[in-house]
Amino acid sequence: MIDIEESSHGNWIIVLSFMIAIMLTALPLPDWAVNWRPAWVAIVLIYWCMAVPNRVGIFVAWFLGLLLDVQQSTVLGQNALGLTLIAFLTLHSYQRMRVYPLSQQAVLICFYLLFYELIMLWVTGMLGTSTRDWTYWMPAITSMFLWPWLFIILRDVRRKYNIS
Questions:
Q1: 8 A C-beta contact, residue 33 and residue 138
Q2: At what angle are helices 40-51 and 4-26 packed, to 10 degrees?
Q3: What is the pLDDT of residues 115-134, one digit of tens each?
Q4: How far apart are CA 17 and CA 77, in angstroms?
Q5: So where are the chain's domains?
Q6: Residue ranges of the alpha helices (H) in the chain?
Q7: Residue 27's CB: how many other CB atoms inside 10 A?
Q8: pLDDT tens-digit map of 53-89
């Protein structure tokens, strides 16, 4: 029998982690550092899709993407499309990803986020926005370096609150 209070408690931890990721995405940075900002929402989404795929999936990714679209004043559905595809890729390969060492996971996360950035670039290109410089791809790199620490922190939180 599943304890409703226990499972809803775990949902609040997941929601809180997404709220923190959205706040970190909104945090103002100096002009030189904006393109180096990690893809906080995407890497937290990847973690939860990998850790609890029965709770966090495509719909959650779509909803988070719409929130990011509103927050960043981008085309409605742009981030939703990217995060949904990232969630799909993660849900498709989460069993393999779980057994990879953290360094391999980080490289795979980098490729997923490069794909995400490519989708964002494609959508903005379809709108006729100018091309960007090489620093446009840096969120994937900075997220790759942050992945091991984020994974360890979220894993410890998940274990402490017994989220499964």
A1: no
A2: 160
A3: 999 999 999 989 888 667 88
A4: 22
A5: 4-160
A6: 4-26, 40-51, 58-72, 78-99, 102-126, 138-160
A7: 8
A8: 999 999 999 999 999 999 999 999 999 999 999 999 9
